[in-house]
Amino acid sequence: MSVKFEISFTKSARLNGGLAILLKSTDSELPAGAESADPANVFAKAAPVSGFKSKLLTALDIIAPEAASFDRIIVIGAGKAKDLTAHDWLKLGGAAAAKIRNTEKVTIFLDAPNVDVGAKEAADFALGMLLRAYSFDTYKTKKGDDDEKGASRKAVKVAIVTQEAAATKKLYATSEAVAGGVILARDLVNEPPNVLGPVEFAAKAKELEKLGVEIEILTEREMRRLGMGALLGVAQGSARPPRLVVMQWKGGKTKDKPVAFIGKGVVFDTGGISIKPAAGMEEMKGHMGGAAAVTGLMHTLAAREAKVNAIGVIGLVENMADGNARLVLCDALWYTNDRFKPQFMINLATLTGAILVALGNLQAGLFCNDDKLAGELTTAGLTTDERLWRMPLGKDYDKMIDSKFADMKNTGGRHAGSITAAQFLKRFVGETPWAHLDIAGTAMGSVQDEINQSWGSGFGVRLLDELVRTNYES
């Protein structure tokens, strides 16, 4: 994270310099905090000259007059107050974070006239700031960020002014938990594969023990004893040994059945014998985006002490020759279902290029054998703007993976490729409610916006946290 924010909440601002950010809707003449931050009403002169009309996510940058309490003023447009959604509040926070440069002190006024700013809106705004602040610069030389002694650049102190300060402070703990999970998932996807192999990924997951998550790591020997020939078949061409990581968060009642999430973790996918095109080979490090999302979700659930029993299972391999990546999931799905008897199973995988052809980078494909679970996932996606589009399943598609030589084959051909991949996975879930999210277009290289400027997006963490929070916590 190249910029670090220390965020606090207060009912009244300290007028002592730095940057002031004011929120303004199209429903009012003045922005939030105008009397305190802009008593000379410089905004009234600057807005017409610049053509600023307070449209959502637009900004007006003002050099404060000499007698002003702040050095600089930025007004962020909030659009029509009645049209603001929960995701808009995240984007507003991201837009504000993007404007913070070369300052150590920021005051943000949220209570704009005619805008209903509750604790949830303020906490979402702060979450948007945290998500926008992220950048993966681990391997970049930092210029100007360190002093001669190597001390890190100071965090920017951000005071958010709102009348709901006390309630927002309580909700902000959840915002930090969500941000932590998303950032963990982004870090995992962005790491180069020579650094993050199966063993190293498993070690990252084990760090969740600090939050109270129980971790088991199955080695090649244990997986062979369990008959996981499909997963091991993908890994057999690599010198790096595979791992299966089982993460358990026990925040619900002992008698409650767990909810289960399974992630594909191919840390690098050459395509095996069907080698991937050279032009896109560098992107093959992102084929553990499903495992990254599950790991990030388990971080979030534990960090916010979610009142649910949750299982996270990730199959970690490197595919250097032979095999097909969906084989990693089938063993993990069967193992999870057989051992834990969960309420439902949701797997995430960057599985097919076909889903990119169908949906591009804007939505993930949803395949589901249960209408209730599909509806809950779709609603959660609309809330978080990590959107899903339900794709078909059916007997005719299932026939396409029948084999002349065995019970099934792992590909149904070029046509309906994302569907036949889902049909393959469906054969390993039994009667348990199950959903498969094909996130090939959204976990990496997705559209960048106000809350994400990273190649690895962390897609799925907020979506699944919303699903659990709304429907499955006791």
Describe this structure in words.
With 474 residues, the protein is an alpha/beta fold. The chain has helices spanning 34-37, 42-50, 86-98, 119-132, 165-190, 198-206, 220-225, 229-235, 289-303, 326-340, 353-359, 371-384, 395-399, 417-426, 461-471, and strands at residues 5-10, 19-24, 59-63, 72-77, 105-109, 156-161, 214-218, 243-250, 259-269, 309-319, 345-349, 364-368, 388-390, 434-438. The protein is elongated, with a radius of gyration of 24 Å. The relative contact order is 0.12. The model is unreliable at 146-152 (pLDDT under 50).
What spatial order of strands do you see in the largest sheet?
7-8-10-9-11-14-12-13
Topology, number of strands: 14
Give a short account of the largest sheet. 8 strands, mixed
N- and C-termini, Cα separation: 34 Å
| Secondary structure: helix percent | 25-40%
> pLDDT average, as an integer?
90
Q: Looking at the structure, what is the overall shape?
A: elongated
Strand residue content? 15-25%
User: Structural class, from secondary structure content?
Assistant: alpha/beta
Annotation field: number of helices = 15
Task: Detail the poorly predicted runs.
Answer: 146-152
Radius of gyration, rounded? Answer: 24 Å
Q: How would you spell out the order of helices and strands?
A: EEHHEEHEHEHHEHHEEHEHEHEHEHHEH
In short:
It is built from 15 helices and 14 strands.
